Amino acid sequence: MNHHQPGLADGLRFRLRSLNPIQGQSRSSRLVSGLEPDSIDDRMCWICLTGDEDQPRRDWLHPCRCRGTNKWVHETCLSRWIDEKQLLAPDLPVTCTQCRTEYIIVMPPLCRFDSILERLDKSYERLCPSVLMGILAATVYFSAVTYGALTLLEVAGYETGMRLLQEDPTLLMILLPSVPTILLLSRMVRWDDCLVRWLRRHQRQGVPPDQIDEDGDPLPGAPLGDDYFDDLERDYPPAEALQPGALGSEHIGRASASFCTALSLPTFAVILGQTLFSNLYEANKAAAILLGGITFVAAKGLASVYLRQAQYKRKRHRYVLDYTPSNLSRFLRRRPRSSHNGRRYP
């Protein structure tokens, strides 16, 4: 491997991918450098942190603009390090971690057949992600079209829905996918959160005055106030709240609940419209279904508000007992078959 010569400009940054090495040049002659230090004992590999004092070697390289003892590196250590870097980012240049100099990497030339295969392989790798994204997009689109068509048949009726699908299929191919999109976006409107905040604003329970210092801050050991529980619910929203952002393992449950709730709205709207508004359903089917949907959203939202308030009050009034025989026996009498983390209390 060649080294930087003193006459080269400092701004030299390039990579030799297919440079033909000098024919007949042995490995030992390639490793003899003209940039020897004043004392060979000062050389230390910045990767394995060993020098000639530990184990004399001949594969020393000076591949960058670094100075001092850290400018030296073993060829085998550097080769392994370059392989690790290129496994993560094969198309990016490999540079020194200190001076950011791009290494001059000399690759043996490829024959024409091997070069064609390498180009085909790289082109295939670049094309496959686009093809996969196209397949996923087409799958989502046709799934949305199918759901929109089924929703139209359910709401408008089979005969009316089929007539609409046959009259203008092009327009319906554009409008039908918007049905699940609108239903999912409607879950972003959290009107029940506004109702919960209004209820808690009128039922505030702050820290007792005797537990507050002169600056207005709670004393150590003071009971938790409403501000703490508000921040807790803001950081950990309810299970049905569809929050934007990355869907980690902890968000899968609430995302799936919101997804199923949104897509099941038309079905519940038709059922409630036929059941609760049967008289109106015969005269004005669309109005009855609309009222059924509003009833479903209102009932589910009020149930969610009630459950959140009940859980909130339980958290506010919970307490922890000392682990004493009397408390343990009283706990066992109240919950004789309870267990914690799969282990029964003794």
Automatic annotation (TrEMBL):
One of its GO terms (molecular function) is zinc ion binding. Keywords: Membrane, Metal-binding, Transmembrane, Transmembrane helix, Zinc, Zinc-finger. Residues 37-106 form the RING-CH-type domain. GO terms for cellular component: membrane. The keyword Oxidoreductase does not apply. It is found in: Membrane. It is a multi-pass membrane protein. The chain crosses the membrane at residues 127-150, 170-189, 259-281, 287-307. Its main location: membrane. PROSITE patterns: ZF_RING_CH (PS51292). This is E3 ubiquitin-protein ligase MARCHF5. The lineage of its organism: Eukaryota, Metazoa, Ecdysozoa, Arthropoda, Hexapoda.
